[in-house]
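hey all, quick one before standup. I had two proteins in the batch that finished overnight and I want to keep them in one place so we stop losing track of which output belongs to which input. First protein below, input sequence then structure tokens straight from the run.
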Amino acid sequence: MVRTREHTAKRFGTILFAAAFAIGLAACAASPPDRAAALSGPMSIAKQGSFFIGGHDVHSDTLSTLPNYAASGTVTVDQMYVHYQIPTGAKPLSLTLVHGCCLTGMTWETTPDGRMGWEEYFVRKGYPTYVIDQSDRGRSATDISAINAVRSGKAPISQLPTVFAASHESAWTIFRFGPQYPQTFPGEQFPVDAQASLWQQMVPDWSPSLGTPNPTVPALSQLAIRLGHTVLISHSQAGIYPFQTAAISTQGIAGIVSIEPGECPSATGDLTPYTRLPILVLFGDYVDLSPRWAPRLKACRAFVDAVDHAGGRAQLVLLPDEGIHGNTHMMMQDRNNLDVADWILRWIDTHVGAAGA
């Protein structure tokens, strides 16, 4: 068979392209050397524990409708549960992880398919790491007196608290696993084979009954002041909380990383507190395909632009623009979650490490 020079050149070009593509895939699949070191061997913890912060006492005559428990008395509500791990030789900067809607601090602990979560990874990378359960969620107490007041006939049914739960079907599209349940987006990174483990993590959400700001916000302010130098890393529903916390006081807040916030502060509001902090607003993939998230991205972009024009140091990043593709709303649990974690840590090292303290 006779091969022309043009045919040979095309074939050689194809081989080169294939080789380059294979090398690129290998590079993407390979873990950074420092990650390999972080993942290997036992974790050395200098201190770990938990505590509560915030909250207030409430006296009520409707604490119980059971005969064996007194209906009248005083309880503490709206406090925030905090679990922490401090590695040996810890960095001076800590990270505080704030979960979103219908979830608890479990969001950050382990992925649905059993891989390492961001909490452990950040500790292995040397950061003191604090994981909260939002006020009135998980291990943080809720005021149930309004429910018992209605149950006992002391209050009208209209005074029942508003509580909701996100169904599997609605969470599927909210979390951008696909355009509709149970379809998936092409190339998405969430471990859908372990989907049932995510559904087990989800809990009822009391936030519509808690007012604005959510009680988590003043508790976060107290926590930041107590820690002295912490980056507030929030997600989804809680994405706005670090900004609301900074509006109370920026004391103790070294920076804000807001992951796919359900809301950003208004671009036309008082931006003064936000000009004092390095801010990252981070979105994953498929955002433009979501009627829920595309408008939020647009509003957050306007906020970031306004902060920059006011002299601040805010940045909005889409992971696909950084070469990281396929991330859902639950990027901390996606199959490439440690790629995202490393990207965030590089941002923190660059923007907070030099600017904090």
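OK second protein, same deal, sequence then tokens:
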Amino acid sequence: MKHNLVAMGLIGALLSTSSFAVELIGHTRSKNMTNVVSEVSGTVEVSELETGALVSVGSVLANIKAQDFELEISKQEANLALVEADLTIKQSLYNRYRELRNKNSLSQNELDIAAADLGAAKATVALAQIELQKARLDLGYTRISADMNGYIVNRSVEDGAWVNQGDLLYQVVNIDVLNVRLLASEYDIGKLRVGQQIEIWAEANPELKVRSSIKRIGVELDPATFAYPVEVEINNPDHLFKPGMSIHASTTSADNLTASNTQP
């Protein structure tokens, strides 16, 4: 009888600290994606990169014919020179009128008119400077480059095509860090917590396993999957995981151990 009690005590102790794995499935998703759009309207001259190409920051993705934009800069430079010359004349006239007014050789009304003309000339120069700045920016936008390292996942433009400002040209995705969206059942959701360690592997390569921790746990049931979303981020410097891969995950959860760890 005594031996039975000892055995039952050992079994109870083991059960009180037993742990069990929570198995989850899901997919990898890209965390950083950027849409490359045309900032100006024009004809695409060079667009050689295809889907799957690896690009780095500053890589030229496409060029838009720059001739019209170069001509616009020349036009705005000439216009600026013209209005600056007019400003010089208006400034000189105002200075002369002010001297005459100080000698009471000119009416106040004539001086006020000269001052208004001078103010208008200054405003015209400011506008011309803005137009020239815009023309130079537009010329810079004809060279379309990548603003992050990544892979081209979508190409929406062809050589020789006309594009309008805002048209999508490429989509570039960085997969150095991936988001893993797992699905937890109503039964399993109570056994998971933010910060909990979790082991992840791709269905296509179960030998390659990485460890991470749970970043977010959804509080609302997804009506499409009838499961709760659980999100994990994984570092992927060698790009062995790709967006869209089927993922399996496993985490050890011990209710009693967790409860004991929350004790003061």
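Flagging for whoever picks this up: The helical segments are 2-16, 67-102, 108-140, 255-261. The longest helix spans residues 67-102.
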